[in-house]
Amino acid sequence: MNYLNIQNNFLTVTKYHNNTDEIIARLNEFVLNNDCNVLCVDISILNMIDAIKVGTLCATTHFTKHPTGTIELIVKDIESKMALKVLGLRTLKITIKRPIIENFYQPVSRKIVALR
Fold first, then answer.
1. How confident is the model at residue 114, as a pLDDT?
2. What would the 3-class secondary structure string for the chain be?
3. pLDDT tens digits for range 55-70
4. The model's pTM
5. Fewer beta carbons within 10 Å, N or C terminal of the chain?
6. Which residues pair with 46 in a beta bridge?
7. Which has the closest alpha carbon to 28: 41, 14, 19?
8. 71: which residues sit within 8 A by CB, 6+ positions away?
9. Distance (Å, rounded) from C-alpha 94 to C-alpha 78?
10. Please, what is the average pLDDT of the chain?
């Protein structure tokens, strides 16, 4: 099964069935076989516990190959971000995925009143 979508140094977890072993194996394989000092991984599909597991193991593997590199994890909520932040992995940057808001800007019609 294809669990990852890979584009340059941006990886996105696309399938998830409560088993992170395949995801971790594919991420580790990508890190070890490619020279990517800066890596971005979107794990926003994962729940908090699995995001901690995948994020920690992926960041550790990345650190062993690129000690001065950085890895950015995109998680789905503040709880996942805070749980990973507490671990103190210095090469890890964590951001929260923002929902796409369609029709964010809608023109507002206003009645203009002239004062005399």
1. 58
2. CCCEEEECCEEEECCCCCCCHHHHHHHHHHHHHCCCCEEEEECCCCCHHHHHHHHHHHHHHHHHHCCCCEEEEEECCHHHHHHHHCCCCCCEEEEECCCCCCCCCCCCCCCCCCCC
3. 999 999 999 999 999 9
4. 0.77
5. C
6. none
7. 41
8. 38, 39, 40, 41, 58, 59, 62, 63, 91, 92, 93
9. 10
10. 83
